[in-house]
């Protein structure tokens, strides 16, 4: 005769894995991401958590797996748990950011070296690229910055989410993501042309063209806002 | 004539052995001919000349070698290595003194400060070379 | 003939004319320099510590990347060509080291494999001067000369890295002749002088400028004393030191007249009929000399 299985027991028939958080083992369902698994285990995340969508770079995690000597790193919100994961969260990576005024500097290798002379220490070991959760060729953009090829550096570094894992692994102590930011800013300011529609729109905003519309939206109640949101214009993708 | 008491004990022997290890050279092959010093482009700016550095190393005089300016004046031009009649890589020995300092006694590191106007024009290759020789990972 | 060309970190910053003239000249001489698509800094000066494998990764990475590039080029051989003397020396030394020490090569390859690269150990490294002497030949260059560099009295400055260490030298280390023969091939006059390989001070220009100034004074005064009106070099760091520090010393009143510094490919360009336009990286203005000789 079939025995009634309570909801509790049903839950415990889930496929679970053991992960180690702060050295302590926890059994968590194997389908969860690291972040969800930590919360399942009872941790309330106040630091090292952000958009939960792989975009903000807050949840950098370094881990090892049982029986494996390698060091792995990834984003906690994007990585599924594996049995034997030994986890450490990195909510903050120390990396001094240089101060500069974009109007006063030009895109060149000297500029990059002036603010980040450490890039001359790059060993080309590629530890940075291997740890990048966005699969960016970090070493290559650092090398491009050293060579003064700012455009190539900025293009390679486009997907960077500033998680800091590269800077932590670098033996030459380069803050790669800050170097990337400088390259991207220089590229944006000096090489790329802003669309004139953008300049036009900025002007309109400064002239107050949209003030009334904003004020109206701010005065609506939550109900009315929701109604308006649902009823907004859609472009019929099939017709477009 | 002046005399100095030289001690060659365990510490000195360890130092000699470490320098030979890092450089991969046999310090005792040097017979003090002085060709290295004669060829060195920077001899006149060193406090201990190249052959004097090797001699002090042979005698394990750690303090004297580590406090000399010579390893930091050396520009790795390798003229000494090319001219040594005993085929000793003299520049490697100078480099191993630098490495010894940088690996074990960090307060002697020659850290450079690149600031302002000068940094605007320095070729990056100069910074690469300077960091390679004056800093350790 | 196309060669896999490794620029190094400096040829695109303040030695752009060196690269530009070299590439143009290489096309005329059918020994074309084709730049590697991706490259990294070689980490000059090479590490002389026997136990520092990490500092040898960068040069081997370059060699393995060049091997990948050589596969894409038609009509090439297994050579990496550089213009920068310091890169040439560093790459050659490490190349010889990993050819002799299989264990070291294996260790480094183990690192590179994770980036889908591997160095087979079968490439050669050559400085462009070697290609000009051995593959192109000076007679070919003489045939292609359109304008003889009459009136130029050239002192050839080798610096240290073209001739040191023994594994990496491109010519006899005490009596080299390749740059002098090139000078003659271009129709200029050779100045014989003893400071052709006195070290310029190299990276000391960063924090120990006095050392460099000492050397530059010796070298440039020596060249002028023997009647030279130009110095040619093959290394961007030597060129920078010789050039910029002369201006500095002139401002301090230590030297009165300056002597212009050229890359050997700039003189080749003038002789082979390529117009030189960009002099912005020169600190000592070479235009007065070139104009007075009718060369620009």
Automatic annotation (TrEMBL), chain A:
What Gene3D superfamilies is this protein classified in?
A: 3.10.20.30, 3.30.70.20
GO MF entry, a single one: 2 iron, 2 sulfur cluster binding
The 2Fe-2S ferredoxin-type domain, residue ranges: 15-93
Question: Which InterPro entries did the record assign?
Answer: 2Fe-2S_ferredoxin-like_sf (IPR036010), 2Fe-2S_ferredoxin-type (IPR001041), 2Fe2S_fd_BS (IPR006058), 4Fe4S_Fe-S-bd (IPR017896), 4Fe4S_Fe_S_CS (IPR017900), Beta-grasp_dom_sf (IPR012675)
Pfam families from the xrefs?
A: Fer2, Fer4_9
Q: Where is the 4Fe-4S ferredoxin-type domain?
A: 113-142, 152-180
- Check the record and name the CDD domains matching this protein: fer2
Q: What name has this protein been given in UniProt?
A: 4Fe-4S dicluster domain-containing protein
UniProtKB/TrEMBL annotation, chain B:
Alphabetically sorted, this entry's keywords are: 4Fe-4S, Iron, Iron-sulfur, Metal-binding, Oxidoreductase
Among Pfam families, the record links this protein to: Fer4_8
GO CC entries: plasma membrane
Concerning Gene3D superfamilies, the annotation shows: Alpha-helical ferredoxin
InterPro entries associated with the record: 4Fe4S_Fe-S-bd, 4Fe4S_Fe_S_CS, HdrC_iron-sulfur_subunit, Helical_ferredxn
Which intervals hold domain 4Fe-4S ferredoxin-type?
27-88
Q: Does the keyword Oxidoreductase apply?
A: yes
Q: Which domain of life is it from?
A: Archaea
As one GO molecular function, the record gives:
metal ion binding
Family as reported in the entry's similarity comment:
Belongs to the HdrC family.
Instruction: Please give the name of this protein.
Output: 4Fe-4S dicluster domain-containing protein
UniProtKB/TrEMBL annotation, chain C:
* Cross-referenced InterPro entries: Cys_rich_dom, HdrB/HdrD_reductase
Q: Does the keyword Oxidoreductase apply?
A: yes
One Pfam family named in its UniProt record: CCG
- Give the molecular function GO annotations: oxidoreductase activity
Q: Sorted alphabetically, which keywords does the UniProt record give? A: Oxidoreductase
Domain Cysteine-rich spans what residues? 4-92, 154-243
Annotated PANTHER family? COB--COM HETERODISULFIDE REDUCTASE SUBUNIT B 1
Protein's UniProt name: CoB--CoM heterodisulfide reductase iron-sulfur subunit B family protein
């Amino acid at each position: 005769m079939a025995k009634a299985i309570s909801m509790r027991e049903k839950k415990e028939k889930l496929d679970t894995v053991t992960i180690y958080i702060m050295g302590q083992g926890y059994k968590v369902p194997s389908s969860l991401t690291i972040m969800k698994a930590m919360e399942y285990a009872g941790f309330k995340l106040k630091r090292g958590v952000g958009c939960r969508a792989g975009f903000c770079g807050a949840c950098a995690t370094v881990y090892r797996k049982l029986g494996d000597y390698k060091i792995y790193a990834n984003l906690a919100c994007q990585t599924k748990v594996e049995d034997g994961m030994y986890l450490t969260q990195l909510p903050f990576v120390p990396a001094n950011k240089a101060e500069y005024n974009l109007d006063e500097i030009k895109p060149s290798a000297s500029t990059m070296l002036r603010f980040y002379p450490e890039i001359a220490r790059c060993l080309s070991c590629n530890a940075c690229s291997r740890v990048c959760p966005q699969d960016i060729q970090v070493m290559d953009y650092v090398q491009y910055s050293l060579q003064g090829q700012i455009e190539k550096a900025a293009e390679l570094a486009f997907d960077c989410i500033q998680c800091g894992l590269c800077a932590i692994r670098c033996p030459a102590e380069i803050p790669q993501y800050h170097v990337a930011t400088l390259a991207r800013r220089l590229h944006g300011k000096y090489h790329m042309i802003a669309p004139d529609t953008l300049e036009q729109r900025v002007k309109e905003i400064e002239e107050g063209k949209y003030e009334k519309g904003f004020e109206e939206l701010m005065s609506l109640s939550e109900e009315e806002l929701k109604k308006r949101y649902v009823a907004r214009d859609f472009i019929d993708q099939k017709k477009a | 004539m002046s005399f100095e008491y030289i001690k060659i004990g365990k510490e000195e022997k360890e130092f000699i052995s470490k320098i030979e290890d890092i450089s991969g050279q046999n310090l005792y092959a040097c017979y003090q001919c002085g060709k290295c010093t004669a060829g060195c482009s920077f001899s006149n700016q060193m406090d201990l000349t190249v052959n004097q550095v090797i001699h002090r190393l042979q005698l394990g005089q750690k303090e004297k070698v580590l406090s000399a300016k010579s390893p930091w004046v050396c520009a790795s031009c390798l003229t000494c290595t090319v001219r040594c009649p005993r085929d000793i890589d003299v520049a490697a020995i100078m480099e191993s003194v630098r490495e010894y300092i940088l690996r074990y006694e960090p307060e002697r590191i020659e850290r450079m400060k690149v600031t302002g106007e000068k940094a605007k024009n320095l070729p990056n290759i100069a910074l690469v070379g300077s960091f390679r020789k004056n800093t350790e990972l | 003939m196309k060669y896999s060309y490794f620029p190094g970190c400096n040829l695109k910053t303040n030695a752009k004319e060196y690269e530009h003239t070299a590439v143009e000249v290489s096309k005329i001489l059918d020994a074309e320099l084709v730049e590697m698509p991706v490259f990294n800094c070689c980490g000059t000066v090479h590490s002389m510590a026997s136990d520092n494998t990490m500092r040898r990764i960068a040069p081997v990475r370059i060699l393995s990347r060049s091997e990948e590039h050589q596969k894409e080029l038609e009509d090439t051989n297994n050579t990496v060509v550089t213009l920068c003397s310091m890169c040439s020396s560093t790459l050659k030394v490490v190349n010889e080291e990993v050819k002799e020490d299989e264990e070291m090569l294996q260790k480094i390859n183990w690192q590179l494999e994770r980036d889908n690269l591997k160095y087979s150990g079968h490439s050669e490294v050559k400085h462009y001067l070697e290609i000009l002497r051995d593959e192109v030949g000076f007679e070919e260059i003489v045939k292609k000369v359109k304008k003889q560099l009459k009136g130029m009295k050239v002192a050839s400055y080798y610096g240290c890295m073209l001739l040191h260490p023994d594994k990496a030298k491109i010519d006899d280390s005490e009596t080299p002749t390749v740059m002098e023969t090139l000078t003659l091939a271009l129709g200029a006059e050779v100045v014989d002088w003893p400071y052709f390989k006195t070290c310029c001070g190299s990276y000391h220009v960063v924090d120990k400028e006095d050392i460099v100034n000492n050397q530059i004074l010796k070298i440039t005064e020596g060249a002028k004393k023997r009647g030279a009106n130009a110095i040619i070099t093959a290394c961007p760091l030597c060129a920078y030191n010789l050039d910029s520090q002369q201006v500095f010393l002139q401002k301090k009143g230590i030297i009165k007249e300056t002597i212009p510094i050229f890359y050997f490919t700039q003189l080749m360009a003038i002789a082979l009929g390529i117009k030189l336009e960009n002099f912005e990286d020169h600190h000592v203005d070479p235009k007065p000399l070139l104009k007075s000789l009718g060369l620009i």
